[in-house]
Amino acid sequence: MKKTIEIEKRHMPGFFKKSPLSIEHGKGVYVWDENGNKYLDFTAGWGVTCIGHSNDVITDAVYEQAKKIIQNPNSGLTYSPQRAKLLELLTGILPRGLTRVFFTNSGAEANDAAIKLARKITGREVVISTHMSFHGRTISTASATGQEMHRNRFNPLMPGFCFVPYDNPAEMKSAVNSDTAAVILEPVQGEGGVNIPSEDYLAEVSALCIKNGSLLIIDEIQTGFCRTGPMFVSAEKNIKPDILTMAKGIAGGFPFGAFAVTEKISSLLEPGDHGGTYCGNPLGCAVSSAVIAYLIEHRVWENVGNLGKYTVERLNVLKDKYPGVVKNVRGKGLLILMEMSDNETASVTVEKCLNSGLILNLIQGRCIRIIPALNIRKQEVDEGISILESVMAEV
Ligand code: PLP
């Protein structure tokens, strides 16, 4: 393990402060380091491994498809039965009206395409985003991200982006006008601190976009595929995005993403508008189909609803017991956040939990985001919370 860590430290740029752990393998909600120590993983590889690590459904799909063919992309010259199968499955669960899908390799790439295509379709430049949003780390998606720490070192960013406070319809109303190409919005802000907007916010923004002829890009990269309970928050709220972007849970850990558009938007797109060498490769399509079929077959949204509520209740008990440690608990489904009293308390808690076998994700300095696999069981939630409780008692 020491050797692995030394090599990574020597040969990789230091973009991330890592835990002193080298994970060798995983199963379900658990991972094991190179020395055989077991950890409960409440991060799911940044909310990606939605049906657990090394789920047989995924490994079988990879193996079976890899034996057939790996590369034959969206952007290529030929059709693919694996892609057709996924298209039928995915359009069956997407919010109504989103009937056309193009696959990508990541979330940022899907958002980048959405921004680019919105400008082409509307002939307008301005894209409105929100404070504390996160849309990716490419130059256009960093430009669309409303957090200084993801923007301020990379100037000049792409022009034409402006920002309004999240969950503030009045500010959005004064920003959207006939120059607005699109509004890009997370239905629940994930990386920015699990910010859950008021009930009607998405519908109000949608109405503003319709009124001004602007497109609504809903970024469900973190919230999609049952992370918050429903398959997509936009479907739950009954809003109709013009473009919806997806990644993370879409293929349970295989690098994959997509954007979906309406018939109307699709009719305004032309050959050559978009593409990518690996986009929509049959391997990713086969894995994604297997993951989506699993989510549907196991009605994973029910587990997410029940255990999400249960986890928040248990964390609120901890908050009441240790008010000097936990300031706030909020969540939707299994996208949950504990805001700690200060940065120091948050990082000590994360470190001590790690030493006790629980991996947690620290965001925004003082917040702990809990985003486990969506098929986690109650006893596994209890195990994590009991580690948290003993660490909090110490802290
Ligand atoms: N959009 C949202 C809401 C995200 O949470 C993320 C990643 O965390 C992204 C976009 C970027 O996705 P990716 O890291 O796959 O490029």
Q: Can you tell me the residue ranges where pLDDT is under 50 for at least 5 consecutive residues?
A: none
Roughly what is the average pLDDT, rounded to an integer?
97
Count of individual helical segments: 14
The shape is: globular
Across the major sheet, the strand order is 4-10-9-8-7-5-6
Coarse structural class: alpha/beta
| Amount of helix | 25-40%
Element-level helix/strand string: HEEEHHHEHEHEHEHEHEEHHHEEHEEEH
Distance between the termini: 28 Å
The portion of residues forming beta strands comes to 15-25%
Biggest sheet record: 7 strands, mixed
Query: Rg, please?
Result: 21 Å
Number of strands: 15
Say which molecules are bound, naming each kind only once.
pyridoxal-5'-phosphate
Overview of this protein structure:
This protein is of the alpha/beta class and 395 residues long. The protein contains 14 helices and 15 strands. It has helices spanning 2-11, 44-47, 56-68, 81-93, 107-122, 139-143, 169-175, 201-212, 233-236, 263-267, 282-297, 300-321, 343-355, 378-394; strands at residues 23-27, 30-33, 38-41, 98-104, 126-130, 161-164, 180-185, 215-219, 243-246, 257-262, 326-332, 335-340, 358-359, 361-363, 367-370. The strands form three sheets. The protein has a seven-stranded mixed sheet, sandwiched between helices. The protein has a four-stranded mixed sheet with strand order 1-2-3-13. A four-stranded antiparallel sheet has the order 11-12-15-14. Helix 8 (201-212) links the parallel strand 7 (180-185) and strand 8. Helix 4 (81-93) runs parallel beside helix 11 (282-297) and helix 12 (300-321) runs parallel beside helix 14 (378-394). The longest helix has 22 residues, at 300-321. The chain is globular and about 60 Å long. The two termini are 28 Å apart. The model has no long low-confidence stretch (mean pLDDT 97). Pyridoxal-5'-phosphate binds at residues 46, 106-108, 111, 134-136, 186, 190-191, 219, 221-222, 247.
